[in-house]
Structure formats: C-alpha cells, structure tokens
C-alpha cells in the first residue's frame, strides 16, 4: 500500500499535546483516535474481516437486506450531501452508494476521515468503481472538517456515523458530541448512527481479543506510531494487550499493560515517564448500548428517532434521527 502520508503541523502538535496530557495522568491513557495512521487503518480493515468482530458483519447485513428502506428514509426530494464521519474504506457505505445510484438519487458523497491515507485510497477506489459519482472528501478532525464543509456547500445534510464509532465516546461526552454535531445541522437534516447493542458479554469481549491477535497488533501499532512520530523508545514486546468488558456499564475497555518497570522517553517531545510492572495504559473504550439508553440519549440531544434498523440477531442497530 502507499507509504504513510505525513501529518500536518497542527495535527502533529495536537497529537503531541494529547500524548503528554494522557501519559501524565495517574491512570495513563492514550486517545483511540490516534490508532488510525496508514498502518492502523490497514489493521482495522483486517479486524473487520475477523470472525469474532461481529460489528461489521451485522451492520453489513442491515445495509444489504434493508438498503431500500434506509434510502427511502433519507427523504431525498432535493440534492443533499451524504457526509460520512470516519469513512475509512467505506465498504459498508458503498452498499448504500450503489443502491442510491441505481435509484438516481441526487447527492454528493462527502467522506471525512482522520487518516489522509484512508481518504486518498477511498477516493481512488470510488473513481474506479463508481464512475461519475460526485465525491468531495475531507481529511482531519470531524468538527474541523464540518466547519470546512459549511464554507463550501449549503446542501441539506444526511450524516452517517457508522460502525459504532460513536461507542468511542464515554456517556457524558456523547451528549456533548451530539450537541456539537447539531450545531452544524438544521431542521430537515438527518443523522444515521450505528450502535453496537448489549449482548452476551463473552461475544463482546472476544470481538476485542481475537484469536489471531489482529486487535492486539492494532493496539500495539499506537506505540509504534508514537515511536516513529516522536522518536520514542516503547519496546512493543514489553507490553501485553488486554481487553475487558463490563456488562453493567456497557464499557468495552482495551489496555496496553507494561510487563516490567521501565522508563519511556519520547525524545522529540523532551518527555519521559515511568511505568511500573503491570501498570496499564488505557487505549480505547467501545461502549455498548441498550435501546432504552439510545432513546434517552436521543431525548437529551433533542433528536427525533425516525426509524430503527437491526439485524436478525439484534446485535447492532442503525438508527435514523431527524434534526
Ligand atoms: C472503529 C471505533 C468502531 O470500537 O469497535 C475495533 C475500533 N477497536 N477493535 C470499535 C476497534 C478494536 C472500533 N471502532
């Protein structure tokens, strides 16, 4: 695949700031949004193929079996922008894109992703697979990208936030996030959100601790990326991937656990810190939802639930909200 595109200075400064803040805390933490450099996006594509990672399979099932109803719910009388937050390789979105083209729906596809590599590859694959599709991609932070979109298009917006990306926000932050999103939307706009639903805790845990070790590699890649970006000395074999699901809170938590006492130095940042043996760095939370929680969230964010789509096993829900 193409070599990694480099980060902008602003993005690199933000990354540096977040690393230092997260690793200076008592409970050390790194933000999961930094998983997705070129390599991380590739590893996540492999995760989506894993037998244990039911999320992609179930959302794909929803789109494949119910695409006609989903598209009909977009109430597409006028041209609109289909804005895909965290588009990645857009494998699932492409199911909707193809069906919308078949029905001659008038829309522009606006993929937004934090990974420049992912956006570039998506642009190339769309040019090859969907000739003539109007595509206006944006790279970077969701809100920065939405800011930019406002300056270049006044179309009605249908936002996609698929794959349970929303699960990366802890509960109070989701509310803040949804309220911020609404700030870029007006009545008549819509949001389609994919939620991973609560289910057998063992099934959930297995999805984040797969037998082939791809999720572990995805987690370790964050340390490799920090080493590479800031001349760090993380030694990957001195850490263990550990993932744990709490069925009471619905929080799926991933960690990198230090196996020994060690000092980490990030030379370019002039920053160092110590890790005790078996101290854990929290790297990701992926929240799981009950339908009741989703309804509550919608109420609090002042979003009207229009329609809920789910798979045969009720593992996953794609819900369209009216702004
Ligand atoms: C892309 C955030 C939806 O939380 O399930 C997959 C990322 N992390 N395996 C998720 C992820 C570990 C994924 N999201």
TrEMBL record:
Highest rank taxon of the organism: Bacteria
InterPro entries assigned: EgtD (IPR035094), EgtD_Methyltrsf_superfamily (IPR051128), MeTrfase_dom (IPR019257), MeTrfase_EgtD-like (IPR017804), SAM-dependent_MTases_sf (IPR029063)
GO molecular function terms listed in the Swiss-Prot or TrEMBL record: L-histidine N(alpha)-methyltransferase activity
Gene Ontology biological process terms from the UniProt entry: methylation
Domain Histidine-specific methyltransferase SAM-dependent residue range list: 15-321
Pfam families: Methyltransf_33
UniProtKB keywords: Methyltransferase, Transferase
Gene3D superfamilies: Vaccinia Virus protein VP39 (3.40.50.150)
Record protein name field: L-histidine N(Alpha)-methyltransferase
Lineage: Bacteria, Pseudomonadati, Bacteroidota, Cytophagia, Cytophagales
Gene: egtD
């Amino acid at each position: 695949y193409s070599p990694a595109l480099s980060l902008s200075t602003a993005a690199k400064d933000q990354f540096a700031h977040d690393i230092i803040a997260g690793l200076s805390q008592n409970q050390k933490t790194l933000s999961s949004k930094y998983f997705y450099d070129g390599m991380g996006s590739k590893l996540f594509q492999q995760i989506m193929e894993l037998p244990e990672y039911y999320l992609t399979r179930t959302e794909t099932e929803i789109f494949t079996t119910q695409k006609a109803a989903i598209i009909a719910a977009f109430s597409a009388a006028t041209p609109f922008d289909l804005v895909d937050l965290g588009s990645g390789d857009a494998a699932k979105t492409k199911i909707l894109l193809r069906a919308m083209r078949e029905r001659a729906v008038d829309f522009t596809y606006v993929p937004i992703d934090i990974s420049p590599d992912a956006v570039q590859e998506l642009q190339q694959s769309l040019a090859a697979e969907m000739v003539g599709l109007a595509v206006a991609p944006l790279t970077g932070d969701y809100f920065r990208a939405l800011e930019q979109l406002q300056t270049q298009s006044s179309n009605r917006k249908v936002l996609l936030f698929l794959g349970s990306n929303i699960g990366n926000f802890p509960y109070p932050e989701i509310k803040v996030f949804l309220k911020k999103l609404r700030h870029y939307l007006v009545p008549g706009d819509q949001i389609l959100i994919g939620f991973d639903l609560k289910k057998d805790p063992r099934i959930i845990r297995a999805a984040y601790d797969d037998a082939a070790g791809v999720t572990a590699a995805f987690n370790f890649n964050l340390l490799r990326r920090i080493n590479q970006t800031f001349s760090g000395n993380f030694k990957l074999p001195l850490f263990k991937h550990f993932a744990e699901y709490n069925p009471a809170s619905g929080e799926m938590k991933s960690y990198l656990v230090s196996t020994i006492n060690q000092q980490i130095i990030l030379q370019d940042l002039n920053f160092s810190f110590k890790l005790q043996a078996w101290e854990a760095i929290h790297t990701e939370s992926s929240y799981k939802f009950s339908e009741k929680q989703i309804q509550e969230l919608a109420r609090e964010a002042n979003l009207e639930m229009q329609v809920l789509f789910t798979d045969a096993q009720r593992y996953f829900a794609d819900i369209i909200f009216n702004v």
